[in-house]
Amino acid sequence: MKPQKTVIIGAGASGLMAANVLAKAGHEVILLEKKHQCGLKLRITGKGRCNLTNACGRNEYLSHISSPEFFEYAFDNFNNTDLMDFFTQKGVELKTERGKRVFPQSDKASDVFFALLKDIEYADNVRIIKNCDVKHLIINNQKVTGVIANNEKITADNVIICTGGRTYPTTGSTGDGYRILKLVGHRITEPIPVLVGLRTQNGYPQALQNLEIKNCQINITDKDKNIITSRFGDITLDEYGVAGPVILTVSREIARQFDEGKDMFLNIDFKPKITEDKLHAEISETFKSRRTENAASIIRKWVQKPLVEDILKVCKINPKTMGYKLTERDAKSLLWYLKFRREEIIGDMGWNEAIVTQGGVSLKEIDRFTMESKKVKNLYVTGELLDLDADTGGYNLQIAFSTAVLAAQSIIKNS
Ligand SMILES: Cc1cc2nc3c(=O)[nH]c(=O)nc-3n(C[C@H](O)[C@H](O)[C@H](O)COP(=O)(O)OP(=O)(O)OC[C@H]3O[C@@H](n4cnc5c(N)ncnc54)[C@H](O)[C@@H]3O)c2cc1C
């Protein structure tokens, strides 16, 4: 084996993992990070708790990934169990929560980050250069031989590029990799933000910001009310629309079609467990039986207190009207709000709030058994920069880690 020099562009989840694997094998590594610190995004994942993977079985795992046929080799080579073992061996105790989401026992994403950093930070064969902005690759005869960073040339036998996507740009992921790889002939599928809240024609009052409503049925329909996708789960209200776990999942499913200009509507059923007829009858009956109570108090029967004011306003019901004076029109209006609220989707909450990027480096141009570029020899592409994304639940970090391990191992094998 001839130890080689590998330049890794980007010290995020993928770059840090690749550096660990290469360093352990005695390879010389130069890890270049644009920001003043490494792993800024990794440290805020999972609301600061880092949902590093998911403990579900292989087939279920792959069903959450956009291109399972591309990812399966990398996953089988370093799967969720391998990842959990990796961190446990580095001293990070793990726990599995609802939905088989895996977190560090400490609930600290920084523990995951420091576990990745500790064996490379002071290793003799690893140099980490921060505030180092890579602009170009150096290519000779369709083979990468180095990079240009901060206007200087750094030579390398191999380059792994893992500059991430475009979400949360303040963490350093500003889409540089798309431009760098386009310049050397790679095709980039238009990046769009996903796992993101949806903006609707009418949002909710600011006072309801982040109000969580559990167990809603969400239907996304076209203008003729044909269902595009349906999901059940929890949402949060927003001044500009709706967010929360189920909306993030839906956003990923509709993003491409919406981006291409399809008209879409968000339909929220706040009471999916009761049929329209039954709820209608229940509302009318309650108006009668609670005849001396006012509307504001009666409506509390179906929703949390903060939502009452919005219902009264949107349904044009006077809060002081007594039950016996509430009409069939009021009953129908309330029924509409609770079961059939429909708003046109006018966009999403954008790059600053999205969790991942859909789109990226075309998978057709990457060897799925090695992560090597099919266009440029000795160049490897990993992580979110690839046209590969997944649902929430720890799947996206596993993509970053598995593809990094495969690229690093391929370099080791070829040396
Ligand atoms: C708020 C938030 C929460 C998330 N929570 C989870 C979660 O709990 N579980 C999960 O599975 N996924 C989560 N994700 C997604 C996950 O963080 C990403 O998919 C993952 O970090 C991608 O890893 P990466 O290494 O490919 O890219 P990144 O982590 O984005 O790292 C890319 C690195 O490259 C650097 N870089 C960029 N351009 C250059 C350049 N020109 N020169 C040098 N360096 C450069 C950047 O500064 C950055 O450090 C979350 C994302 C966000 C935004």
Identify low-pLDDT runs.
none
Q: Count the helices. How many?
A: 13
- Count all strands and give the number: 19
Radius of gyration: 25 Å
Proportion in β-strands: 15-25%
Helix content: 25-40%
Give the CATH class of the largest domain: Alpha Beta
Terminal CA distance reads 6 Å
CATH architecture of the largest domain: 3-Layer(bba) Sandwich
Bound small molecules, by name, code or SMILES, are: flavin-adenine dinucleotide
Profile the largest sheet.
Answer: 6 strands, antiparallel, barrel
Quaternary state, please? single chain
Domains (count): 2
Could you name the CATH homologous superfamily of the largest domain?
Answer: FAD/NAD(P)-binding domain
Care to describe what's here?
It is a single chain. The chain is α+β, with helices and mostly antiparallel strands. The chain has two domains: about 5-195 and about 355-415, FAD/NAD(P)-binding domain (3-Layer(bba) Sandwich), CATH 3.50.50.60; about 195-350, no CATH class. It has 13 helices and 19 strands. It has helices at about 15-25, 45-50, 60-65, 70-75, 80-90, 110-120, 175-180, 245-260, 275-290, 295-300, 305-315, 330-340, 395-415, and strands at about 5-10, 30, 55, 95, 100-105, 125-130, 135-140, 145-150, 150-155, 160, 190-195, 200, 210-220, 225-240, 240-245, 265-270, 340-350, 355-360, 380. A six-stranded antiparallel β-barrel has the order 12-15-14-13-16-17. A five-stranded parallel β-sheet has the order 6-2-1-10-19, covered by helices on one side. The longest helix has 20 residues, at about 395-415. The relative contact order is 0.19. The model has no long low-confidence stretch (mean pLDDT about 95). Bound molecules: flavin-adenine dinucleotide (FAD).
